[in-house]
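Technical note accompanying the year-one report. For the benefit of new consortium partners, we illustrate the data format agreed upon in the data management plan: each record pairs a sequence with a structure-token string. No post-processing was applied to the example shown here.
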Amino acid sequence: MAKNMGQNEEDSARAEESLLEMIDSLISHINMERTWFNILVTTSILAAPISLFFTLLLLLHKRLIAFIFRTDFLLGITAIAYFAVILVVASLWLVVGLREHAFLSKWNSRFKKYFSLREQLDKELRKEFEENSPERPSNL
């Protein structure tokens, strides 16, 4: 029974260690992918307003809309629906880009703090284990 409890404690400790390693790995991976996230955010912040501007320009151009409707009524309805979809998607893309920009700005500062604390802890652990480890014979 005592052996079984010891086994459960070991399994629990391994699971916690595995979870911590997994979280550390995830944080490192996200930090490496940060460049791509920044590129996506930048393009969304730049492209969405341009798309919104040109879509609104086309929608507010009365002669163009009238010409499309005179040419083909179904084409006019389709064009209006297309412009509406562009307005919604570009607006969402802009909002997401701005929110992610704010998040990534906070992430950069938090990751720098996390990384420096992790390095400090690693140095302290290395120093402690080097002091507590028995001397190795140099003749081997």
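Partners are asked to follow this layout when depositing records. Residues 34-130 form one domain.
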